[in-house]
Predict the structure.
Amino acid sequence: MLQIQQNISLKPFNTFGIDVKAAFFAEIFNVEDLKALFNKDITKTQKLLVIGGGSNILFTQDYDGLVVKISISGIESLIEGNTVKVTAGAGVVWNDFVNYCVAHNFAGTENLSLIPGTVGASPVQNIGAYGVELKDIFHSCTAFEIETGNIKTFNYDDCHFGYRESIFKGDLKGKYIITSVTFNLKTEAVINTSYGAIETELQKRGIEKPNIADVSAAVSHIRVSKLPDPSTIGNAGSFFKNPVIEKYEFADVVSNHPDVVHYPTADGKVKLAAGWLIEQCGYKGKIAGNTGTWKNQALVLVNHGNASGTEIFNFSEQIIDSVKSTFGVTLEREVNIL
Ligand code: EPU
């Protein structure tokens, strides 16, 4: 039964653990709940924020509107020869979905092990890690159109995926709520260990012919060793995107900083490792009041206890200024600021 609560603390609903309040809050367990909610006037009079795992948001103030938490569950799979289509509810915790796939020996998600967040949020920012992006395994998703209440299917081409980008963050921002995602996976493992750290970790474990459970375990191990666990130290993963710059801009950077960590992109640009840039500015593991950067990964900002969103935001401004004045490169936040 749909319930709308008032004056609810959002602390349990954002992985930074920021203690702000939502004026109104509703949790959605199925599409019928969504339809019932959007039949109510409150959705016309209040501003709206849709959240999944709350793993990509920084609240800097109370939310004076309606927060809608998507908790639509369920996973189904359909095997067709050596491919399998797996459909998961938008509220399924991403790593539970990965674990389901690994347990069923469905290949494709294992490099994305332990990413925080939910299935429904995964296409929005085209999550990625260790050489794989969501778009590589995406088949389609269904979404509720806020204006009409219709459910629409989005295929791969409709989603305009880019690096941490999709149409749901762009032209269609605020117009649809993703209700389920269908993935194209393989029943015969196609292992991708191209990312050096995975190869190294598998070698350390003496594994020559890894299966998908081995890759998932290696990725999980790497993540746990480099990234803080949001259940103990508030954070939202990478706070900034890795900046992508033009070749001529890169020529400037590399002439002053020959050891800059960089990668070519498919469209002839250059991606810089933001973690490296931040570390060079002296920020790795820095503690600034209640906030700071993580000791093993400077790209991750953390809440050491009772940080306010504004404190973390102001610290991120300092980092942007410092990287700009040292390298002439402007960092963009990956996390949504509210
Ligand atoms: N580096 C440093 N210092 C640091 C951090 C990184 O020098 O403090 C260097 C590393 O040595 C390495 C390079 O930067 O040479 C890249 O580092 P890493 O492999 O840790 O990856 P990343 O580019 O910093 C991205 C994603 C992560 C994802 C990893 C692994 C973005 C914004 N971040 O980080 O995604 O887990 O690759 O594939 O693209 C996230 O989005 O929340 C996230 C954690």
